[in-house]
Amino acid sequence: MINEIKDKEEFKKLCQKAWDKNSDVWINNRILPIKLKKFIIDFLFEKENPFILDIGCGNGWLLQELNATKSAIKFNYVGVDINHNFIDFLKGKWFDFKYDFFVADFEEKLNVIRDDSVDKAIAVLSLIEMSDLEIAFKNITDKLKNGGCCMIVVLNPYIEMIRINSNMNELKNDIASFRNGNLFFYEKKIISKELESEVNYYGLLHPIEKYFSVAKKSGLLINDFREIDAIDELGTESTIYHCIEFVKP
To answer: Residue 104 is part of which domain span?
Structure first.
């Protein structure tokens, strides 16, 4: 069952409280499909020595993958996340490396990174927690160099409604509500490696076309779109990832 957002700030607080409880589960057990990780890393290293901005860096899985697969290649990395637990963990883990981590709310103006400095920005399942996409995409546009690219990985809202509903009538009601155009969220447990989160995780159901329209208004162009299905790796309970690449002309 989905719920309509009545107050965006209250929803943000709800998410932050949930992550304060759930961060340990995410730090120790986050799993992403191999084909998705490979696709992202190929995107990041289309050119040499990229400056990478990781939006909603979480437990630092991406940085871990980069060091495991691209250790011989030079790159600069900055990770930002609204959750201080993640940033504290990453600063402790990578303290002797030349990487930067900042606690930052991406739904506010981002001041910790210079404008026009980023070659590649990546947001994996981060924008599905942000109700203010206008500010988020404004930050992306401001930070990218001309010719720089951003890839966002999001979820198909209809697939997510199917995943959270076991009752056909509830599914029909949710789809009807969603199609009215208001902003809705869902909640569910994080389950990974037989561990279960203490409290629910919250995600937003943005229509896919919303990402396109807001990015366009922010001055970005759509460069690529890819759908990645992880059923062969994670089983029938897995989701379908939508990877959308934008470029700053």
So the answer is: 3-247
